[in-house]
TrEMBL record:
<dbReference type="InterPro" id="IPR029510">
    <property type="entry name" value="Ald_DH_CS_GLU"/>
</dbReference>
<dbReference type="InterPro" id="IPR016163">
    <property type="entry name" value="Ald_DH_C"/>
</dbReference>
<dbReference type="Pfam" id="PF00171">
    <property type="entry name" value="Aldedh"/>
</dbReference>
<dbReference type="InterPro" id="IPR016160">
    <property type="entry name" value="Ald_DH_CS_CYS"/>
</dbReference>
<feature type="domain" description="Aldehyde dehydrogenase">
    <location>
        <begin position="5"/>
        <end position="452"/>
    </location>
</feature>
<feature type="active site">
    <location>
        <position position="234"/>
    </location>
</feature>
<dbReference type="InterPro" id="IPR016162">
    <property type="entry name" value="Ald_DH_N"/>
</dbReference>
<keyword id="KW-0560">Oxidoreductase</keyword>
<dbReference type="InterPro" id="IPR015590">
    <property type="entry name" value="Aldehyde_DH_dom"/>
</dbReference>
<protein>
    <submittedName>
        <fullName>Aldehyde dehydrogenase family protein</fullName>
        <ecNumber>1.2.1.-</ecNumber>
    </submittedName>
</protein>
<dbReference type="GO" id="GO:0016491">
    <property type="term" value="F:oxidoreductase activity"/>
</dbReference>
<dbReference type="InterPro" id="IPR016161">
    <property type="entry name" value="Ald_DH/histidinol_DH"/>
</dbReference>
<comment type="similarity">
    <text>Belongs to the aldehyde dehydrogenase family.</text>
</comment>
Length: 461
């Protein structure tokens, strides 16, 4: 398709396959207009007093909170997320804005001792930031980049995924309603190869924050290199869930299903490689089987549903390509009929280098692999090109610390599967990404450090 040709995006409800909206897709000229407008808005925004910027961001947070249910219902319809998850996601946007607002007046440089003068560092905004978001957590991931970027004095142009532009468009309306300046936060719905690439290549964009597949991330990093453009990449994962024989096996088995089934497995942190010490392997599977079978898959708008559909037919076909119908393992139930449904699936007896054990499936599919001892467990856990997250189940504190240090991943949890909090850093090792988001340093990632030396010697005579 030519860069100028107009096109539209059909937004489908993945639980029913009905078209719920049609959105005009942006082309290169739209990206150019958005970036130019953003650049003008950014200058005015950065010139505001920090307290004023913080106050406007807090008002944006309050406005999001007032529309939490509406945003959640929109997320259920366009992304098939369970309503409980969708409410959490809208609340996460509110919290991200609030947390970032608290950082505006605290974004301080340093004073460094020197002779003959005073040396200070200034943390200056970058300018216009391009945020490219995926469809798996459309609202939170859009806000991970947007909230701290705005707080640090930048303007944002957000390119949502093709399948999930609606919550992003609504957030931009709410920003205006809250009093944020026009064009400071714009949404550019469109195809990745058209609108996304136009944003990446635009000389007026100082930084790209990309979350998505490793394949596209590599292309974006290469395109950014051309202009030495700043880039943060949050990419794929194939995270291990290590269960040692000394763990609370009941608790580990009870927690394992939702660690890879939440959001139908369309989660970059999904613990899809369940590694279990051989001596408790049979017992663990015995407990895991009813836990997987009891997961309720169905209408995501129903409060009792644990897992909804996959996002699209393409994703369904992709997930199917990893699972042979007669492969041994555990299968849950999924609805028949319209919608992109796939049952919870755990495969056993799989070679650790088989496609399903090595590649990111991005669906409700995990493998269980046995290991012999701690060394073997760490070797298996690290035997992947990814390094995003992982879990360690053990009652031995020394082992928990040793294994946490040995596993090469950015986000680990012990006796838990939690990995994402807006106030702790998040990001990947190896091919899971580069840079960190969230946490206390989130705003700094959207600044340039400038060093200024002021001589106390007076002008040279
Ligand atoms: P994707 O890479 O296909 O698309 C992500 C975004 O990039 C979309 O907005 C898309 O339109 C855009 N895009 C596609 N091609 C582009 C191009 N050439 N130039 C610019 N933009 C382009 O990924 P997806 O299918 O939307 O999301 C699923 C992937 O995201 C999974 O692999 C998952 O692991 C990853 N993910 C990672 C994290 C993380 O934090 N590490 C979080 C969520 C999802």
């Amino acid at each position: 398709m030519s860069q100028r040709q107009q096109y539209e995006l059909d937004v489908l409800n993945p639980a029913t396959e009905e078209v719920i909206a049609t959105v005009p897709g942006a082309v290169e000229a739209d990206a150019d207009t958005a970036v130019r407008r953003a650049a003008r808005a950014q200058e005015r925004w950065a010139a505001l007093a920090p307290g004023e910027r913080a106050r406007l961001l807090r008002r944006f947070a309050v406005t999001v909170d007032e529309h939490q249910e509406e945003l959640a219902r929109l997320e259920v319809r366009e992304a098939g997320h369970t309503v409980g998850n969708a409410r959490w996601e809208a609340g996460n946007v509110r919290d991200l804005l609030d947390y970032a607002a608290g950082g505006v007046e605290r974004l301080t440089g340093r004073q460094i001792p020197v002779t003959g003068g005073l040396d200070v560092t200034l943390l200056e905004p970058l300018g216009v930031v391009g945020v490219i978001a995926p469809w798996n957590f459309p609202m939170p991931i859009a806000a991970w980049g947007t909230a701290p970027a705005l707080a640090a004095g930048n303007a944002v142009v957000l390119k949502p995924a093709e399948t999930t532009p609606l919550t992003a468009l609504r957030l931009a309306e709410l920003a205006l309603e809250a009093g944020l300046p026009e064009h400071l936060f714009q949404v550019l719905p469109g195809r990745g190869d058209i609108a996304g690439e136009a944003l990446v290549k635009h000389a007026g964009v100082a930084k790209i924050v990309f979350t998505g597949s490793t394949r596209v991330g590599k292309r974006i990093m290469a395109l950014c290199a051309d202009q030495v453009k700043r880039v943060t990449l949050e990419l794929g994962g194939k995270s291990p869930n290590l269960v040692f024989a000394d763990a609370d096996i009941e608790a580990a088995a009870a927690a394992a299903p939702m660690s890879f089934l939440d959001n139908s497995g369309q989660d970059c942190c999904a613990r899809t490689r369940i590694l279990v010490q051989r001596t408790v392997y049979d017992r663990f599977l015995e407990l895991l089987t009813p836990a997987v079978e009891s997961v309720t898959v169905g209408d995501p708008a129903d409060e009792k549903t644990d897992m909804g559909p996959l996002i699209s037919r393409a994703q369904l076909e992709r997930v199917r390509s990893y699972v042979d119908a007669d492969a041994p393992g555990i299968r849950g139930k999924a609805p028949e009929g319209p919608g992109f449904w796939f049952p919870p699936t755990v495969l056993t007896g799989v070679d650790p280098h088989a496609r399903v054990a090595a590649e990111e499936v991005f669906g409700p599919v995990a493998v269980v692999l046995p290991f012999d001892d701690e060394t073997d467990a760490v070797r298996l856990a690290n035997d992947t090109e990814y390094g995003l997250s992982g879990s360690i189940w053990t009652r031995d504190v020394g082992r928990a610390l040793r294994v946490s240090q040995a596993v090469k991943a950015g986000n680990l949890s012990v006796n838990s599967h939690s990995s994402v909090r807006y106030w702790t850093p998040f990001g990947g090792f190896k091919q899971s990404g580069i840079g960190r988001e969230l946490g206390p340093d989130a705003l700094t990632a959207f600044t340039e450090t400038k060093n200024v030396f002021i001589s106390t010697e007076g002008p040279a005579q």
